Structure formats: C-alpha cells, structure tokens
Amino acid sequence: MGGVFISYRRDDTAGYAGRLYDALSAHFGRDLVFIDVDSIRAGENFVDVIDGWIASSSVVIVLIGKAWLNSAGPHGRRLDDPHDFVRLEVASALQQKIPVIPVLVGGAKMPPPDDLPAPLAPLAQINAIEIFDQLFRDSVRHLIDALRPFVHTKPLFWLWSRPVQSRLRLWILAIALLAALGVAGIIWSLKPSPDHDDTQDVAPDPSTTLAGPDESGSPHTPVKVTTPSDVTELPPVVEASRNVMLPGSSSQVTGPVKPRILWRANVTVGDDWNVIGIASDGTVYLYDVEHRVLDAIRDGKEQWAHPSPSPLGFDAEGRLWLGDYSFNSRGEGGRVTKRSLLPDRATLRLAAASQQSRYGCSEGKVYAMDSRSKKIWSVDLDGNCGPIVVPQTGNIYASSDARTLYAITRDGKVLWTVKQACNSNFFDLYPSSNDDLIVACTKQALYSLREGKPLWTAAPGGSGDWYWSKIIFDGSGSIYLGGQSPSVFQLMALDKSGRQIWKFSAGTIDMPKPVGFDTQGRLYVSVSERIVSLSQ
C-alpha cells in the first residue's frame, strides 16, 4: 500500500528529515512513511531497489536545503553523478509519474531548470511547500494537508481489499467469530458486581483539559481584520504591556507549579500562525504568514487584527514593529509616515533575531561565518551532519550520523563528545541555561547530559514510547513540553532532575506545545488551533 517517501541528502537536510519523519509518522502511521533506503545491502542492484521503493510509494517528498543543488562529492557535483542516490530517487519518481512535492527548508529556494540535470529538470516546474524554522509545526500541518489526497490508511477489513479465495474467507470468518465469542465470555465473567468498585481509568472531564469541550457544533465568529491608517506619531505606550517576553524559554520567571486554566482562545485568522511575543498584560501577539495578518489575543478573546508586513520586533517601549507599521497591545497605531520616528532595526527584539556569527553544518563540518560570510572556523565530525542547535548564548551542540554528540564553544573548541543513546538518528537537542543538554529521542524516554555524562532519564507513565514537542525552560530550570504516546496526548512539567511536577491532558488528538511565558510566570500553550493560558 502506497505511502510517503522522503528523499533527502544527509549533509544537507538530515535534521529536517528526522523531524519531518517523526511528524508524518505520528499522523499517518510509521508503516506509511519511508526513509533511509540508501542503506542498501551489498550485492543488491541499487537502481532496482530504489525504483522498487519509489514504485511502492504514492507520493515522494524531496527535501531541498541550501546545499542540495551544489553538494559536492569526490568527482564534482553530486547531482551530476548518474549513480547519486538523491538523483536516482527523484528521477525515478518523475519517470514513473509518482506525485512529487518539493519541500524547501532552511531558507532554500527552488532551483531553476537550467541548473538541474536533464532527468530532474521537471522538478523545477512543480509548486513547492516551504518549511519555516520558526513555524516548523505549523508548516508541517500544511504539508500534511497536501499529502492527504495521496496517503490512505489501511482499511479495517484489509483481507477483503485484496483477492482471497472464498474458502479461506470462510475459515477466517469462522475463526474470527469463535475468537469474538471467547472474548465476550471472558468480559462477561469479569463484569463487576453492583457493589464492586470499578477502578478503570476514565476519560478526563473535557472542561479540565487544555483543549476544553468540543465546540465544533458552534463555530466561532472570525475576528474582524481592519486595515490600519497612516499615522504621524507613534502609538502611545501601554504601561501594562511595556514588557514583552519573546516565545520560548525564559530565565527571568518561574512557571506555574500548580497550574490552572486561566482562559482558552480560538485563533480564527488562519492556520499558519506563530506566536511572536507575549506582553505583561497577557496580550499574545500572533502572526499568520499565509494571510499576512497580525492578531492579538487577551483574556481568552481575539481583541484585534490588522494586515501587515512580516514582524521586525519589539522596541524598548513594548511597541511591535512590522516594516513601517507599529502597534501597541490595544491595536492602536498604523503605518508610521514620519521617517525620523522609524527605529533602528538592530535595536528591536524578535525570536528569529540573527546573531553576529552564523553557524551551520555541511559535509561533515560544523562551521562559523562572520557577517560577510567569511568562514571563521570549522570542526570536523566523524560522519555526516545530523541535528545542530545554536542557542542565543552558551555552547553549540551538533551531532553526526555516526551517533556522536559534540559540545563546541563559540570559538570552535570541542569541549566533549559522547555517543548518543537514541535508537535512531531522529532526535532533538535542547540546551538549558547552565549548558546541561536534554536529548529528546523519537519513541524513547528523554535523557539529560552534563559535560557529556548522563544526568537522568525521564519516561512519563513508565513507558518510553513517546513523541515530544519543542521543550522550553523557566528560570528555575523546570522543563515544559508536550508528549504523545499511542493513546495519550498531554502537557507536562519536569523539574531539573527529570521528575514530573504536573501534567495536563490535551483532551484532543493534537500534541500540546508550550509557547512561552509572560512576566507574571503564566505559561501559554498551543493546542488544536487554540491558545491556552495557565496561571500559577
């Protein structure tokens, strides 16, 4: 049965491929997502093997990073090598007329047809989907929507979906009937008497879950998007929202220890939104990339929305700037026409702010470059590049496909290396403020390292079969994250020793994702197209 085939180049997009594989497997099922067929056994005809894998797929995703087009091998550009695996995968899909979806990551652009070898030239004419680093989860939702027409889950009565002899069907039906009667008898024998306490787990009250009661029968009125006017003065400062926290971890506050739901709010401006800031008064600023709309939520309701350019950042007075547009938390402001009032962009704060030096990994080397793109230093890994994380401060953490983790200082000195404990190369790295490192493996427990040595392992509910959301930290070192097991979707908090402090059921089949904090220590969570505020 057809599924999704992920074509990627290890030294270009291995980290993205791993995260994408996790997300698609969680949605469609692991048996419908294929990856890493380049580990072909000796003696096999690799062209035939790749053609077979592609033929058995219903859609092919081609991950394209900045190094995809010009990645070099021992004999020149790899795409020019007729035996290059990536070239063979893409060419096979195009030749067999399997649907192909280019997926751009890391700021890559679609290559022009003249830059592609002839068998791959049609790829340039296919509409691509872009995965944004700061909007990864939301971007993947769009990709999943695009894949749905091609990927079909296995029917319940799968034996009847393929040719089966009539006599065999009768035997199967008879065996299934006997098994059902046996199970029914066991269940009846175990039925508790009226005075027996039933200790089965029950589903949580929807009103106590993050998503809240099902409101699909009562659709919400979309927020009115109003076009701002031109202004000659800056919007007034709102003292209650002067201090704006950026999404993600914060060393300035301590998150909720015994949380309660303060409010829930539906986001109606679109489904490609991302939180860009949280003000002291609880105003949550969101920006929808697809519709280019700024949305503000406070007290469980969308307060206002304006069409505007992409966000630049927040100034010292708490105003948000988007190109020449500026707004306060009440929605006052507009396009500032007086040039002398426009801020120096270098003084604005935004989560995606660039650093003085740019770090990356390509062809098995971690490197740093200055503002003129001149390489400052590089560190050789013992394999191709895996996930790499560059926090705003502290060490850089990188990994190789040889399962080695590296801690590297900002000036290129290797502090330590260690073999990672994940069963696969699909994992995420999260450094804390004191440079402890949490490793979130796919379908495994979390574990933490300090100076390369194990600190703790955390497996909620005693099971390691989990997928994890992005992790954020507060000032006390507590850890906030969403978790998804085969039957459980929840938000949880762990202390810095890995012990669970609390957990919240999501109340939906959508993994909750912690977004960030405000200056009061309230935690904000994204779940099922809603923003949820949790107070102390």
Explain this structure.
- It is a single chain.
- Helices cover 14% and strands 31% of the residues.
- Mean pLDDT is 83; it is low at 154-166, 186-203 and 352-356.
- The strands form nine sheets. Strands 2-1-3-6-7 form a five-stranded parallel β-sheet, sandwiched between helices. A five-stranded mixed β-sheet has the order 8-18-17-16-15, with no helix packed on it.
- α2 packs across α3 (85-95).
- The longest helix has 24 residues, at 166-189.
- It has five helices and 37 strands.
- With 536 residues, the protein is of the alpha+beta class.
- β31 and β32 form a beta hairpin.
- Among the domains are: 4-147, Rossmann fold; 158-185, no CATH class; 213-244 and 274-347, no CATH class; 356-389 and 395-434, Thrombin, subunit H, CATH 2.40.10.
Number of strands: 37
Straight-line N-to-C gap: 49 Å
Radius of gyration: 26 Å
CATH class of the domain at 4-147: Alpha Beta
CATH architecture of the domain at 4-147: 3-Layer(aba) Sandwich
Count the DSSP helices: 5
Within CATH, the superfamily of the domain at 4-147 carries the name Toll/interleukin-1 receptor homology (TIR) domain
Helicity range: 10-25%
The averaged pLDDT comes out at 83
Low-confidence stretches: 154-166, 186-203, 352-356
Work out the strand percent. Answer: 25-35%
Described by the principal axes of the CA atoms, the overall outline is: globular
Q: Record the strand order, biggest sheet.
A: 2-1-3-6-7
Could you tell me the CATH topology label of the domain at 4-147. Answer: Rossmann fold
Reported for the largest beta sheet, the result is: 5 strands, parallel
